[in-house]
């Protein structure tokens, strides 16, 4: 009888130990917006946004400041299209007014980015409010 309890106790400790270790070491799942934040700050080729856009005080001003892009309430789809093929929204070379400021529409295409990357970047921009 006593031996039975000892075995049950040991099995319990092993099972609980496994659960605890698993909970601590399991990889943290990042959201699409978090992955997009990592991507936009990476030096991956084709990720050139900061050359023209400022986000939170860092970057250029050839294009609009994107620090509050999410507040403009564009859909994720709209943002994906804007990043991949901006001329579908703004005629290349024309003067466009965005958020009260005028820009020349010269944003380049980013067709080399995967669907997943476009979704992540769009989700990140949408999260900026
Ligand atoms: C060479 C400069 C340049 C680069 C590089 C660039 N953009 Fe742009 N972006 C612009 C300009 C100029 C506009 C204004 C409209 C246009 O040109 O299509 C714009 C517009 C936008 C808009 C639309 C803002 C609005 O709400 O109307 C988004 C979103 C955007 N860019 C995101 C990005 C992202 C993300 C990247 C990087 C993958 C990027 N841009 C790279 C210049 C640039």
Strand content: 5-15%
Q: Indicate the percent of residues in helices.
A: 40-55%
Q: Name every ligand kind in the structure.
A: heme C
Termini separation: 64 Å
Query: How many beta-strand runs?
Result: 4
Strand order of the largest sheet: 1-2
How many helical stretches? Answer: 4
General form: rod-shaped
| Average pLDDT taken over every residue | 94
In sequence order, what are the helices and strands, one letter per element?
Answer: HHEEHEEH
Number of individual domains: 1
Give the CATH level 1 class. Mainly Alpha
CATH superfamily caption: Cytochrome c-like domain
Structural class: mainly alpha
Report the CATH topology name. Answer: Cytochrome Bc1 Complex, Chain D, domain 2
> What characterizes the major β-sheet?
2 strands, antiparallel
Give unreliable regions as ranges. Answer: none
Entry keywords:
rod-shaped, Cytochrome Bc1 Complex, Chain D, domain 2, about 10% strand, single chain, about 130 residues, binds heme C, two-stranded antiparallel sheet, about 45% helix, 4 strands, mainly alpha
Question: What would a concise description of this structure say?
Answer:
Helices cover 43% and strands 9% of the residues. By secondary structure, the protein is mostly helical. It has a single domain (33-127), classed as Cytochrome c-like domain (Cytochrome Bc1 Complex, Chain D, domain 2), CATH 1.10.760.10.
